[in-house]
Automatic annotation (TrEMBL):
GO BP: any one term: protein transport
A single GO molecular function term of this UniProt record: cysteine-type endopeptidase activity
Reactions listed under catalytic activity: [protein]-C-terminal L-amino acid-glycyl-phosphatidylserine + H2O = [protein]-C-terminal L-amino acid-glycine + a 1,2-diacyl-sn-glycero-3-phospho-L-serine; [protein]-C-terminal L-amino acid-glycyl-phosphatidylethanolamide + H2O = [protein]-C-terminal L-amino acid-glycine + a 1,2-diacyl-sn-glycero-3-phosphoethanolamine
Major location category of this protein: cytoplasm
Protein name: Cysteine protease
Length: 94
């Protein structure tokens, strides 16, 4: 697993999913259309815990059902992160 990986967006025709993992031949996904309010700390410094949890549990689908049009997301916080990502991609692709 690449630490820079943010996940994969894809799905089935007329249905988008945010894939966060897999078990065997099944993909685990969340609905990317679900929104939650931004977290604003209170004067006491407390954060509302419920905003860090999914409103709906993750779902599963067979990898065979996946539409081939997907997007893979990565985030590199530093130049060193980017260089590490480049090395990992080279290992996978070559």
């Amino acid at each position: 697993m690449m630490p820079q990986s943010l996940g994969v967006i894809g799905g089935k025709p007329n249905s988008a999913h945010y894939f966060i993992g897999y078990v065997g031949e099944e993909l685990i996904y969340l609905d990317p259309h679900t929104t939650q309010p931004a977290v604003e700390p209170s004067d006491s410094g407390c954060l509302p815990d419920e905003s860090f949890h999914c409103q709906h549990p993750p779902c599963r689908m067979s990898i065979a059902e996946l539409d081939p049009s997907i997007a893979v997301g990565f985030f590199c916080n530093t130049e060193a992160d980017f260089n590490d990502w480049c090395q990992q991609i080279k290992k996978v692709c070559i």
